[in-house]
Structures are given as C-alpha cells and as structure tokens.
Amino acid sequence: MEVINALGRRKAAVARIYVSEGSGKITINKRDLEVYFPLSSLRYVVMQPLYKLGVAEKYDIKVNLDGGGIKGQAEALRLAIARALVKINPEDKAVLKADGFMTRDAREVERKKPGRPKARRRFQFSKR
Prior knowledge:
This protein is of the alpha+beta class. It has four helices and five strands. The protein is elongated. It starts with a strand and ends in a 30-residue tail after the last helix. 27% of the residues are buried.
C-alpha cells in the first residue's frame, strides 16, 4: 500500500496526515500520541474512527498539526483519519458517516466588530 494523505479541519486547527501500513503508531509533530495529547479523552476522540472499523493496529499515521487549541486539533485529526480510511476502503464511508466522523464542523469564531466590545455584545446603554 502506498502512502495515503488526508486533511482535516476544525475551528482554527488543520491536520495533515499520512497513512501507511504498519503497527498502529501515531506520530504527531514528531511526538508520540500519548505525549502530544496527555488527556485520555482527547486520545479517545482521535482514535474513534480507527476503533469503529477495528483497524487501530493496522496503520501507521504521521500527522502535521497546526493552529487552534487541543480540542480543535483532536477533532481535526479525527476528521483527517476518517477521510483517509475512506480513501483506503470506500465501503467504510457509510459506517463512519453514521457516527458523524465524516462531517466537517464548520463553526468558526465570529470576528469582532468595530464600536463593540465583542462580536455581538454591545456597550451598556445609559439613558442619562
């Protein structure tokens, strides 16, 4: 199998991944998964598509993660892994889509508007 690449985004985070046959090792920015995501809940989010298809020990994944916070990065990586698995085996798309792993969460931070303290918040109105 040649190297399969995929892209995942969430908020400001971008995950570029390269999947190849291997033993299940995930390397993120030249660091191990356990080192990069110390929280087990975030590691679980990343591994969800692999566990769902039962291929966690089958592929080595090299990841380039950039931008955003740790939660956004974990969800961007989950989307990238799901997209790569569909490239490898298109029949798996229905299973991953049913669990929502193929959906890009497009919610972004709204920009701050001039003359306001935040994006939609207004300064307190004073009659006098």
